[in-house]
Design a protein that fits this description.
Chain lengths: ~375, ~375
């Protein structure tokens, strides 16, 4: 339902008591999720990322309804990507929504197309970079604890499919995090069905803006959303719920591997080393020998992440190379090195492994230079 | 390329030495895979499952080429599902192929449509059940060690997508096993691209039969194969390789969890109990308390499998219920029970969990009866 001039919002703010039982359950379920799984502390200050669409309109409404109960201070940021003629009207809708809800709101504009050209990446990626950068600026500006995004179960399903398609490991395949402490992000609606959010807005007579670019098939996410996922949902109407379950398992596994590696690194720390082209990390033999291959693979990823190398886009090439690296370690191969995406290199020497910036090859080489897999890959 | 009357096979058996370097590498890679990852022992006796299509024609050829090097004794079984008028001609092609390769071959027919009606399942499922039952009979009849199937990397990608769609956990999502010790199955071509197999056959002038039912969109696997996977491969031409990498990670994780649970059960065994409706398993408090939630979830699956409850088709409903069960355990809830698919029940009592056949409800109830998730699901 598109907002038009007139009255996109009811005369007064709804209260939880006014909601239907189903909608009240929806809200209270999200409250439980915030308190429990997200560990949202009383007194938290939040910056809501609002685009004007149904999802962020619902996000703003829900957080406003829960703010007294969770004692939250709310702020909002809307980013005008300046890609569509309607984007200014979208920003005005967000401003009106926030006035109605009593949430301080800032609108910032950025020429995303120009950024994309400057960075040499696509519009989708540039938009994402710009959004997250501005949200982080706003978070600091208002001294907030978290950035809150309106991603829901449909977005999660798309993200999982995207990661499967592009190449991902585990638990990476399980999709975007509900809580990302590193980037200070929360996604309280992540397990909620988008249709439930729209139903709530419709029941309360609250309008939202439709974003025509969501139909643009030049964006991969839209191709998956409109051409692939509907087919999968025909095969299993409960697909989104299945993916929520998969995600929860992924979160538990992520937590498990982190604890395991914390303990292993406590007992046998890695060593920072200085390479010709920058810092590196040496994983000593004692550390590596004490771990199962499954744990070592997660250790390699942790080491690469510590060296600033964690881009998901390189996931597949890196995954295959790390498997080959571990195979070489198990076979006791000596003085072997493996090229990794991002211009990194892993060197195997007397049972230890060192990760560092590669002195040997240009950044563009993603295939391992000296791999002869003998067992796991025909 | 369809086999017609005439000469579907070259005048003499090819040898490895005659192959192009690329095709020789393909063969030797599969040999390495057999020796290494599959641990195929010298002197093994194998029953090859042959349909007449490109994949099984390539399987038969490759195993015949490698038989002297791996000292294998080969047998073949072709199953005529009696679903298509051409199926008898397919079986004759397999018989001719085996005569040419010098592999003893049996052809058995079964009215799969009648089985499907009798079992109340679809043709795809009935065909699979019939095939595996007859292969196991043949394996015993010729005293073979393994049944060998011709599934390749394309089949693996379809299987992973199918599992994601239907609902799966991890490492279940990583797809069919290359080696299944329980069912005595090997899949030596699992990491090989189907186009490489066809290329080999074409280069040697060996014909195969096309199965028209592979185009039949009433079969879910075909819908995924023809409508969904090509779209994903357009997004990432290296999709199949990504999925092979994911699979290998899944195998390592599966091995890791099995070792971890072996050790946990050694220290604190579960107890067989007798319920009103059959045997059950009690997982004592000491066992459960000593495990991370991620490990407990795998323990629950292992317990259910031990009780004969491991059907993939119930994966999603079961996954969500097991998450809820573990949440209840963590919260210290007392005297709570959860309905599981397959008419099973999990009862939580003083920190222990008992799995057994449900006395409370009919088999059709898949939703948990007494779940009030408070943290992980809004």
């Amino acid at each position: 339902m598109c907002a038009e001039s007139g009255a996109p919002f009811p005369p007064s703010l709804p209260t939880l008591q006014q909601l239907s039982p189903a909608h009240a359950r929806l809200c209270l379920g999200i409250e439980r999720f915030c308190r429990g799984a997200l560990g949202l502390a009383p007194g938290s200050r939040l910056v809501l990322a609002l685009s004007g669409g149904a999802d962020s309109t619902a996000l703003a409404l829900l957080m406003r309804l829960l703010a007294p109960r969770l004692t939250l201070s709310l702020f909002a940021l809307s980013v005008d990507h300046q890609l569509r003629p309607e984007s200014a009207a979208d920003a005005r809708h967000v401003a009106a929504l926030c006035r109605w809800l009593g949430i301080p709101c800032r609108v910032r504009g950025k020429d995303v197309a120009a950024c994309a050209r400057g960075w040499g990446c696509g519009l989708e990626d540039a938009g994402r970079k710009v959004r997250y950068a501005l949200l982080e600026e706003e978070r600091k500006a208002v001294n907030a604890d978290w950035i809150v995004l309106g991603h829901h179960a449909g977005d999660l399903a798309e993200d999982v499919l995207l990661r499967l398609t592009r190449g991902a490991g585990w638990p990476g395949l399980a999709g975007m995090a509900a809580k990302d402490e590193g980037r200070r992000l929360l996604r309280p609606l992540l397990f909620t069905e988008p249709e439930a959010l729209r139903g709530l807005l419709r029941a309360l007579g609250i309008l939202w803006r439709e974003d025509a670019s969501n139909q643009d098939r030049t964006f991969r996410r839209n191709r998956l959303r409109h051409a692939v996922l509907p087919q999968l949902r025909r095969e299993n109407p409960a697909l989104d719920r299945s993916i929520v379950t998969l995600h929860q398992l992924g979160e538990l596994d992520g937590d498990f591997w982190e604890e395991l590696l914390d303990a292993a690194l406590d007992a046998h720390p890695w060593q920072e080393v200085e390479g010709d082209d920058g810092p590196g990390l040496l994983l000593p033999r004692a550390l590596l020998r004490g771990l199962h291959p499954a744990a070592r693979l997660r250790l390699y990823v942790r080491a690469l992440r510590a060296l600033g190398q964690a881009s998901g886009a390189q996931g597949q090439a890196r995954g295959a190379t790390l498997l080959a690296l571990d195979e070489a370690l198990r076979e006791g191969r000596a003085n072997t090195y493996f090229q990794l995406p991002g211009g990194m290199e892993a060197t195997l020497r007397r049972g230890s492994i060192t990760f560092k910036k590669s002195a040997h090859s240009p950044r563009s080489r993603a295939r391992p230079a000296s791999v002869t897999p003998s067992t796991s890959r025909p």
